[in-house]
UniProtKB/TrEMBL annotation:
Residues 321-462 form the Peptidase M1 membrane alanine aminopeptidase domain. This is Aminopeptidase N. Belongs to the peptidase M1 family. The lineage of its organism: Bacteria, Bacillati, Actinomycetota, Actinomycetes, Streptosporangiales. Keywords: Aminopeptidase, Hydrolase, Metal-binding, Metalloprotease, Protease, Signal, Zinc. InterPro entries: Aminopeptidase_N-like_N, Aminopeptidase_N-like_N_sf, Peptidase_M1, Peptidase_M1_aminopeptidases, Peptidase_M1_dom, Peptidase_M4/M1_CTD_sf. GO terms for biological process: proteolysis. GO terms for molecular function: alanyl aminopeptidase activity; metallopeptidase activity; zinc ion binding. Pfam families: Peptidase_M1 (PF01433), Peptidase_M1_N (PF17900).
């Protein structure tokens, strides 16, 4: 409801703004232009549930983020440089950005004009960009970032200032609260970060350090690089006082744990469990997709965690094995394999929830079968059975059914195809779509191919029917 209503209202506003813009009016000399310039990139990437998220007309390959943040004043000064290529001719294109003041925009190093309308930054390069052409866009901006908090079901997310820094967790569409981007998982890109903070404060982003931090004039710059494609909602620049523990897992994956001093006693268990669980998942799901693992515990009482790529972020609690197992399973399911549309969110959350049950099974505490049976005892009136998890609703994206019934779907599949095929399927799924995008239809097709069974009725009952499966 929130997204739909707001989206439709904003779309109407934007269309009228574009239609009134003199540059878009038909002129006898501008061949091929009509009342609304067909060469204007769309203000949404095409997810019907989130019509204003992401943008059309280009594909980002890399973000270079320079962020200067001062916790005491909460001021952020940023320069974002984006490498992209046009997927159509572009007389203008949009980026997503909430609040903050844009000082300057350049396309291929030439000044570009721009307008702001709600969460859309429309950039008009001096000359149209040809279809297929690579281009760079640089945006200089600053201000006081404000988190997104417009949905009771999502709570507060995005760039969240804290007393000693910032807690940055942006799913589903909060990265626009701290840098201009194409804010939808359908467009993944690699990232470089240079985060400058007062000396004594640590900045933690995705991937691995790109060189030692450098300090001058009382400010320290931390450089990080995520060299594998990443959805914008997984990008982080979490800032604050942190104790760190570095090393590597038994299997040799670099491991970095960070904890706010208030959670110092969690640091060793976070480090050890993250290493053990990463290595275990590699035996179940196939090779770990990224170049490092770990986690961050910050003193912000989010009450939740987010699977930020390479560095899950835990908000104000000591994470136990179950939640670490969940967030690290997302590194395969969600982060390496990324949904193209939010409606397929069970491919993230159902898998990560099922991973929790697999971890308990692995530890000999409880089988997934026992968990499944227990949940199957819920009466037909339980709200979980009314919400089909195969179609996450934009006004209730993270509904418990997407997690729990999504996980149950995988167990029902496991029962139907047997353990050998099921576990072969998990690895094949992760391998076939490594670093790519996925849909529910693709998962069903692979399950049918590997099992040789017609599974349409099973998936229909578990994913799509608003009632308890028989
Ligand atoms: N994906 C998270 C999980 O299941 C939950 C989540 C959704 C979240 N939106 C968020 C966490 C925003 C932090 C911020 O682990
Ligand atoms: Zn999750």
């Amino acid at each position: 409801m929130r997204f739909n209503r707001r989206g439709v209202a904003m779309l109407a506003t934007l269309v009228s703004v574009l239609a009134c813009s003199p540059a878009d009016e038909p002129t006898p000399t501008a061949a091929g232009q009509s009342a609304v310039d067909r060469r204007a990139g769309a203000p949404g990437i095409g997810d019907p549930d989130f019509p204003r998220d992401g943008n059309g007309g280009y594909d980002v390959s890399h973000y270079d983020l320079a962020v200067d943040y001062t916790p005491a004043t909460k001021r952020l000064d940023g320069v974002t440089t984006i490498r992209a290529s046009a997927t159509q001719e572009l007389s203008s294109f949009n980026l997503d950005l909430t609040g903050l003041d844009v000082r300057e925009v350049a396309v291929d190093n030439a000044p570009a004009t721009f307008t702001r309308q709600s969460d859309e930054l429309t950039v008009r390069p001096a000359r149209a960009i040809a279809d297929g052409a690579p281009f760079t866009v640089r945006v200089a901006y600053s201000g006081l970032p404000r988190p997104a908090s417009d949905n009771a079901n999502l709570g507060t997310y995005g760039f969240i200032p804290t007393p000693d820094g910032a807690f940055v967790a942006s799913e589903p569409n909060g990265s626009k609260t701290w840098f201009p981007n194409n804010d939808h998982p359908a467009d993944k890109a690699t990232f470089d970060f240079a985060i400058t903070v007062p000396a004594g404060v640590t900045a933690l982003a995705n991937g691995e350090p790109a060189g030692q931090p450098t300090t001058s004039g009382g400010r320290t710059t931390y450089r990080w690089r995520e060299r594998h494609p990443m959805a914008t909602y997984l990008a982080t620049a979490t800032v604050g006082k942190f104790d760190l523990r570095r090393g590597s897992t038994a299997a040799g994956i670099p491991n970095l744990a960070a904890a706010d001093p208030k959670f110092k006693s969690s640091l060793d268990s976070l480090y050890t469990l993250s290493g053990q669980i990463t290595d275990h998942w590699a035996t179940v799901f196939g090779p770990y997709p990224f170049s490092s693992t770990g986690g961050v515990v910050d003193d912000y009482s989010a009450g939740y965690a987010l699977e930020n790529q390479t560095k899950p972020l835990y908000g104000g609690f000591q994470p136990d094995e179950t939640i670490i197992a969940h967030e690290l399973a997302h590194q395969w399911f969600g982060n390496s394999l990324t949904i193209r549309r939010w409606k397929d969110l069970w491919l993230n959350e159902g898998f990560a929830t099922y991973a929790e049950w697999l971890w308990a099974e692995h530890k000999g505490r409880k089988t997934a079968e026992a968990t499944f049976k227990e949940l199957l005892n819920r009466p037909a009136t339980d709200p979980m059975w009314a919400y089909p998890p195969g179609r996450a609703k934009p006004d209730d994206l993270f509904n418990q059914s997407v997690y729990t019934r999504g996980g149950m779907t995988l167990h029902a599949l496991r029962r139907a195809v047997g353990d050998p095929t099921f576990f072969t399927l998990l690895k094949a799924w992760a391998a076939e779509h490594r670093y790519g995008h996925v849909t529910t239809e693709q998962f069903v097709a692979l399950a049918e191919r590997l099992s040789g069974k017609d599974l349409d009725a099973l998936f229909d009952a578990w994913l799509h029917q608003p009632r308890k499966p028989a």
